[in-house]
Amino acid sequence: MSPEPTDPPDYARRTRAVYDLLNGRDFDAITAMFAPDGVWDVSRWGLGAKSGREAIRRFLEDWFGSLTEYEVRVEQIDELGQGVVLAQVLQIARADSRGSLEVRSTPVFRWQDERIAEVTLYRDGEEARVAAARLVRERS
After folding, report:
1. Are strands 101-112 and 34-41 parallel, antiparallel or unpaired?
2. Percent of the chain, pLDDT > 70?
3. What does DSSP say about strands 101-112 and 49-51: parallel, antiparallel, or unpaired?
């Protein structure tokens, strides 16, 4: 008797879960979703690329932990195939009483073996779409 087929991973759902955890500031759960050598690349924002779970966790604690309020609103998530997910998000933050800051970004997630291999945050949505399409082609 052959084994039962399994459903492919729902990477869009898993990506949404990352943002739910980020809103809850559950940095341990977020970093557990990454591959041991996973990468959080925010170099397009001048913040470098963080490699490995410990470096990612430190970045999350330093960056988001310094904010008095933080929320990310997921506007759209597209699963493009081959473990590539493109998201459009609005981040709303407050670091002190001077008001809030709203920033849109277009992250591209690359999932591998049910873990995040890399997430790259793009400022420009079109650049993100081109990069995501290239990743899908490379992984096909």
Report:
1. unpaired
2. 94
3. unpaired
**Sheet containing 34-41: which strands, arranged edge to edge?**
49-51, 34-41, 115-122, 101-112, 84-94, 69-81
The string of pLDDT tens digits covering residues 42-60 is: 999 999 999 999 999 999 9
Domains of the chain: 11-139 (3.10.450.50)
In angstroms, how far is CA 39 from the centroid of its own chain?
10
With contact defined as beta carbons under 8 Å apart, do 114 and 104 qualify? no
pLDDT digits (tens, 9 = 90+) for 78-126: 999 999 999 999 999 987 777 788 999 999 999 998 999 999 999 999 9
Is residue 76 a contact partner of residue 15, using CB atoms and an 8 Å limit?
Answer: no
At 8, phi and psi to the nearest 5?
-65, 155
Q: How far apart are CA 18 and CA 27, in angstroms?
A: 10
79 in Cβ contact with 12 (< 8 Å): yes
pTM, entire model: 0.91
C-alpha span between 62 and 85 (Å, rounded): 26
- Would you give the DSSP letter of residue 7? P
